[in-house]
Specification:
It is a multi-pass membrane protein. InterPro entries: MFS (IPR011701), MFS_dom (IPR020846), MFS_trans_sf (IPR036259). Keywords: Membrane, Transmembrane, Transmembrane helix. It is found in: Cell membrane. Its main location: membrane. By secondary structure, the chain is mainly α. It has one domain: Growth Hormone, Chain: A, CATH 1.20.1250. It is built from 15 helices and no strands. The radius of gyration is 20 Å and the shape is globular.
């Protein structure tokens, strides 16, 4: 890893700081909405889904723009800056509408930064280290999430909010603390990273999904099937609370999840550099299906704890590996557009996925829904179908192959 380009280190450090900031707040937003503001799960599903979907078009556009301008760094810096500027407004939120507005503004920043950032990493690393680099980035990102959650847990503990309710003052304290690492994230990328020259930007004169190629588009269809059942993790947090896990317990559980995620990401990415990447993704999706079945059947708090720790293994196996596979499937001059498309599709599907989960849980109107187990059975089933699709699919060149 000493041979990594400075951009890999810069992006990883930035993600580390930003996730300290984001995870402190994002994981307690559903508890704040549900416990303090009394918002129903179907509304929470809409908020979380739209939070990602609002950024979807921007992800495609910012990725294409970074291809056209042959520049990744400053678009990413602008995106991180927008997210940082939006965070203070959580402090003043007193209605679910305002929470939603700030959440969506934060995701606009994510939409601007994500594709150029991922393309900057892909541009800066040798193909044989692609999985390792993205795995390392995910490990840094997740390590920041763990630190952020531990800080939030400390705040909750000091506030003695160890019951099932999250105090309004405690939420606002966490928001204030989260502003410091967010600022460090922007500074890290602006100071350390530098743009890498893209060999040819002629293909980026206009946005064209056809130019991304059939292998990439088939990959996106399969990933899209999986993501339709991959609702917001807010539902996992609500399930944990529903099964009797306290707010402090939830934060510590999420910290343990992120520790496992961080430990697994780098070796999983390295493994995907030496075998067919599809095998790593398939294994992760099958594990996801089993975990979601477990969440549907969970009865005790320790069941949820065990499942959430295993959830970190799924994340570690798949997230960095899938990002590396995107770079395998498209030409270098189209990477920004490809990463924009990849992230946009996942973002757009977050809305129906989270809406479906919320409706399955608590219904809509006079219909009471199927109960807390339903969204997890649905998500687990689609994960298995997607894994089968990935196993059947045979791209012309095997991503991750060292041949």
């Amino acid at each position: 890893m000493r041979k990594f380009h400075r951009n890999v280190w810069a992006v990883s450090l930035t993600s580390f700081f930003m996730d300290i900031s984001s995870e402190m707040v994002i994981n307690i937003i559903p508890l704040f909405l549900f416990n303090v503001l009394g918002v129903r799960t179907n509304i929470i599903g809409i908020i979380e889904g739209v939070a990602e979907a609002t950024a979807s078009v921007l992800k495609v556009f910012s990725g294409w723009l970074s291809d056209k301008l042959r520049a990744r760094k400053w678009l990413a810096v602008i995106g991180y800056g927008l997210s940082t500027l939006s965070k203070p407004f959580f402090y003043f939120a007193k209605s679910w509408g305002m929470v939603a507005g700030v959440r969506w503004a934060d995701r606009v920043g994510k939409g601007v930064r994500t594709a150029p950032r991922d393309a900057l990493v892909a541009d800066s690393i040798k193909p044989e280290q692609r999985g390792l680099a993205f795995g390392f980035h995910r490990a840094a990102d997740t390590g920041g999430a763990m630190v952020g959650l531990l800080i939030a847990a400390l705040v909750v503990w000091l506030a003695q909010s160890t019951n099932l309710q999250l105090g309004e003052n405690t939420f606002r304290t966490v928001v204030l603390i989260s502003l410091v690492p967010a600022l460090f994230a922007v500074i890290s990328l602006a100071v350390i990273a530098k743009d890498v020259k893209v060999q040819d930007a002629s293909a980026a004169t206009k946005i064209s999904f056809k130019r991304l190629g059939k292998p990439f588009l088939v990959f996106m269809l399969i990933v899209g099937l999986f993501d339709l059942g991959n609702s917001s993790d807010a539902f996992l947090v609500l399930r944990a609370q529903e099964r009797g896990v306290s707010v402090l317990g939830i934060l510590l559980m999420l910290a343990a999840f992120n520790l496992i995620y961080a430990l697994v990401s780098t070796p999983a990415g390295n493994l995907s550099d030496h075998i067919d990447r599809r095998l790593v993704i398939i294994g992760g999706w099958l594990l996801y299906g089993l975990i979601y079945l477990g969440f549907a059947l969970a009865r005790q708090p320790w069941h949820v704890w065990t499942l959430y720790c295993a959830y970190g293994l799924y994340y570690g196996l798949t997230y960095g590996t899938a990002k590396a596979m995107v770079a395998d499937l498209v030409a270098p001059e189209l990477r920004g557009t490809a990463y924009g498309t990849y992230n946009a599709v996942l973002g757009m599907l977050d809305l129906p996925a989270s809406l479906i989960a919320g409706v399955l849980w608590q219904g809509v109107g006079r219909w009471a829904g199927f109960g807390p187990s339903a969204p997890f059975l649905f998500g687990g089933g689609l994960a298995v179908l997607a894994a089968i699709g990935m196993a059947i699919w045979r791209p012309q060149t095997l991503p991750g192959s060292t041949e």
